[in-house]
Specification:
By secondary structure, the protein is an alpha/beta fold. The chain has one domain (16-189): Cytidine Deaminase, domain 2, CATH 3.40.140.10. It contains eight helices and five strands, in the order H-H-E-E-H-H-E-H-E-H-H-E-H. The protein has helices at 16-24, 32-48, 75-78, 85-97, 120-129, 142-147, 158-164, 175-187; strands at residues 56-61, 67-72, 110-114, 133-136, 168-170. A five-stranded mixed beta sheet has the order 2-1-3-4-5, sandwiched between helices. Helix 2 runs parallel beside helix 8 and helix 4 (85-97) packs parallel to helix 5 (120-129). It is globular. Bound molecules: zinc ion. Zinc ion (ZN) is lined by residues 84, 86, 118-119, 121-122.
């Protein structure tokens, strides 16, 4: 009789340098620029350590700035096309808080901070996550133009779709630093891992 060897479980985790770094972070970051600075540090260190693409995200309690989770892109090392930084951060926050809904009853308002506008997939993940606030360093075609990463068919009314669902949006936080980091990534010649080897 033939045995079926299909994989039945999946583990995603941060690289060791990020696990170590998370321990050293201040538990509370009241200032939104400090939150983005932290995200940019992780995004830069991720590609420089060759542990994933130049993307990071973090979940905070919006009002207090208490850090809930950090995510970095893990697509290539995890053989997982969905292991984007936002998916990592949101899923780790949900695991940490033991809820699939970060906006559930009795929860403080949660904020996702990312070093660029979420891609087509992550935009959906943002909507389903229960976060109440999205902070990004930029949006639009600049990222694709610099790095070649495909961001997918982002909804043309994405800002309004966020607003409809009560998710506030803060854009262009540390924009220039984020763009400079993508330029550094592009200049490093590291691989861009779009599907279909595109
Ligand atoms: Zn994404």
């Amino acid at each position: 009789m033939q045995t079926n060897t299909t994989v039945t479980q999946l583990t995603l985790q941060l690289p060791q340098w990020a696990i170590d770094k998370v321990q050293e972070l201040p538990p509370v970051m009241p200032d939104v620029e400090q939150r983005m600075e932290t995200v940019l540090f992780f995004a830069g260190a991720n590609f420089k350590n060759d542990t994933g693409g130049p993307f990071a995200a973090a979940v905070f309690e919006e009002a207090s700035g208490r850090l809930v989770s950090i995510g970095v892109n893990r697509v290539v090392p995890s053989n997982c096309s969905t292991a984007h930084a936002e998916i990592m951060a949101l899923s780790l926050a949900q695991a940490q808080l033991q809820t699939y809904d970060l906006g559930g009853p009795g929860m403080p308002s949660h904020q996702l901070v990312v070093n660029w506008c979420p891609c087509a997939m992550c935009f959906g993940a943002v909507l389903w996550s229960g976060i109440r606030s999205l902070v990004i360093a930029g949006a639009g075609s600049q990222l694709e133009a610099i790095t070649g990463f495909d961001e997918g068919p982002i909804h043309p009314q994405w800002r309004q779709e966020l607003e409809k669902r009560g998710i506030t949006l803060l854009e262009d936080v540390l924009h220039e630093q984020a763009v400079a980091q993508f330029e550094e990534f592009a200049a490093s010649g590291r691989p861009v891992y779009n599907a279909r080897l595109g």
